[in-house]
Structure formats: structure tokens, C-alpha cells
């Protein structure tokens, strides 16, 4: 089995960052102003959590990789399809849970959002263990991408409106499902 190529890792990073983008975009739309430090705190927190969760998943996956080596590509496909499907499902759900003028850059709210937006990265990290992916490259790529995507979303929030948030989740979900299908096809063909 070979390492996951950088392009796939980068696409996964953008897919995982869709939740960060949607949350940051929503926050920037709902807040009257966002200071540099608010944006920096959220982007840094999201980036750190997105970067660490794949490592935790990878560590968990390394403990069972020998047991399921013959089926690892199916598991990687299943995990990526599940995460991507979940993102698609969330993008089509009705309702808007945003609160106006809520500062998401501090305290328990920031911690909760950081964990919530990075849970998907834990499952992806588990699949990385089965694919023998370079976890340092993958987690740093995911973390930096999440940081940048979050910062960009804050900057765009005032200009583009709330519609893009849902579309970002759709694109992110489709990217993850596509990577899962690519992995499955590589191992089956």
C-alpha cells in the first residue's frame, strides 16, 4: 500500500475545512464587526483542532491496522463517505442556529466550535492509518488549510452573504466522498 498523494491530502484538507468556512462565514455575517484578534483566535483554534484530530484518529487506527489490512480500503472509503455524507446532510438541513452579535472567538463557545468542526478530521485520521499516510504532512496540511480557510471566510462574510456557507459544505462533502471512491477504485482495480 502506498502513501496518500499530496493532492489527495490537500483536497481532503479543503473538504474538512468546509465546516470551518461555514462557521466563520456565518459568524462574520452575524457580527457587526470582527477584529483582527477575533479572526486570528478562531482561525488558530480551528487550525489546531483540525490538525490534531487526524493525529488522534491515526494513532487509534495504527493499533488495529494489522487486524484489518485486507479490508482497509473499504474502511477508508466508508469513513470518508460517511463524513462526506454527513456534511451533505448537514448542508441540506433546515434551520439556522446562528445567534446575532455572539462572539465565537472566546471561551467555551470557541472550544465547542473547534471540536465540533474537527470531529470529521478524527475519522479521516483513522482512514489515514489504514492508508499508511504520512500523518505529519497530512495533519499539518489540514491544520494550515483550516487556518487559512477560516480567515478567508471571515473576510468574505460581509461581502458574499449566507448562501455560500451551505454550498461550501456540499462541495466539502462531495470532495470527501470523491476521495473515498478514488481510494476504493485504486485498491480494486
Average pLDDT for all residues: 81
The low-confidence parts are none
Number of domains: 1
Please state roughly what percent of the residues sit in beta strands, choosing from under 5%, 5-15%, 15-25%, 25-35%, 35-45% or over 45%: under 5%
Distance between the termini: 13 Å
User: Which value, in Å, is the CA radius of gyration?
Assistant: 16 Å
Number of helices: 6
Biggest beta sheet summary: none
Roughly what percent helix? over 70%
| SSE string, helices as H and strands as E | HHHHHH
What fold name stands as the CATH topology? Growth Hormone, Chain: A
What is the C-level CATH assignment? Mainly Alpha
Main features:
Growth Hormone, Chain: A, 189 residues, mainly alpha, elongated
Question: What secondary-structure arrangement, pairings included, does this model have?
Answer:
Elements: H1 6-30, H2 36-62, H3 72-92, H4 107-130, H5 135-160, H6 163-188
Outline of this structure?
With 189 residues, the protein is mostly helical. It contains 6 helices and no strands.
Amino acid at each position: 500500500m502506498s502513501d496518500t498523494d499530496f493532492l489527495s491530502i490537500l483536497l481532503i484538507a479543503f473538504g474538512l475545512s468546509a465546516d470551518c468556512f461555514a462557521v466563520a462565514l456565518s459568524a462574520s455575517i452575524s457580527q457587526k464587526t470582527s477584529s483582527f484578534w477575533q479572526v486570528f483566535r478562531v482561525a488558530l483554534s480551528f487550525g489546531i483542532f483540525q490538525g490534531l484530530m487526524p493525529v488522534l484518529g491515526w494513532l487509534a487506527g495504527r493499533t488495529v491496522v494489522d487486524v484489518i489490512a485486507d479490508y482497509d480500503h473499504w474502511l477508508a472509503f466508508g469513513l470518508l463517505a460517511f463524513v462526506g455524507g454527513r456534511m451533505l446532510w448537514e448542508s441540506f438541513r433546515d434551520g439556522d442556529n446562528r445567534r446575532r452579535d455572539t462572539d465565537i472567538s472566546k471561551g467555551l463557545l470557541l472550544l465547542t466550535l473547534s471540536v465540533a468542526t474537527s470531529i470529521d478530521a478524527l475519522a479521516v485520521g483513522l482512514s489515514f492509518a489504514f492508508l499508511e499516510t504520512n500523518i505529519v504532512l497530512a495533519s499539518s496540511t489540514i491544520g494550515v488549510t483550516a487556518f487559512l480557510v477560516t480567515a478567508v471566510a471571515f473576510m468574505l462574510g460581509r461581502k458574499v452573504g449566507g448562501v455560500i456557507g451551505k454550498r461550501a459544505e456540499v462541495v466539502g462533502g462531495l470532495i470527501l466522498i470523491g476521495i473515498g471512491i478514488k481510494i476504493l477504485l485504486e485498491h480494486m482495480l
